[in-house]
C-alpha cells in the first residue's frame, strides 16, 4: 500500500504590525511565547524568532537584502534619449518582419541599449504586439491607377456586356519572410517588390 505524501504547509506572511503585537505582549504584558502563539494564532516558531530578532537588532524584522537590480532601460521619454518602448515600436513600424535578434542588434548599434531577447519579447507582449503571418503588398500597386484603368475599360464596353476585372498574378515563391509583427487583432502588412528590373 503506497504511503501518503506529507503535506507541506504553505508559507504565510505576517505583517509588521502583528509582529509588534508579539513584542508588546512579551515585554509589556509579560506573556510567554506559547500564550502569545495561542492568542494571535501564530506558530510558536514565528513568535520565538520575532522575539529573538527584537533582542538582536531592536526591530521585528530584518531589512531586505535583495531588492532587485535597478532597471537598465529608461522608462522616461526625452528628446535626447527616447524610452525603450518607443524604440521597439519604431523598429517594428519600419520593418514589420524584423527578427528579435535584429531588433537587439539595432538597439545596441544605434542607441547603445543592451537588452536581452527575453526583455524585447516581454516588451512586445506588453505592448500588445504579436507575431502573425505577414500579408505582402505589391509596392508597384497604385489604387488610383487601378480604378482609372478599370473605369476606362468599363466605359468602352457596351451596356449589355458583363465586364470582369482581375489583378495580374504575382510570384509568391520569393525569399520574403512570412511572419511579421503588428498590433493585436490587426493584420501585418509589408510592401514588397514582386518583379525585378523595370517594366
TrEMBL record:
UniProt-listed InterPro entries: Homeodomain-like_sf (IPR009057)
SUPFAM superfamilies in alphabetical order: Homeodomain-like (SSF46689)
User: What's the source species for this entry?
Assistant: Mycena metata
Q: What is this protein called?
A: Transposase
The record lists the lineage as: Eukaryota, Fungi, Dikarya, Basidiomycota, Agaricomycotina
| Source organism, top-level taxon | Eukaryota
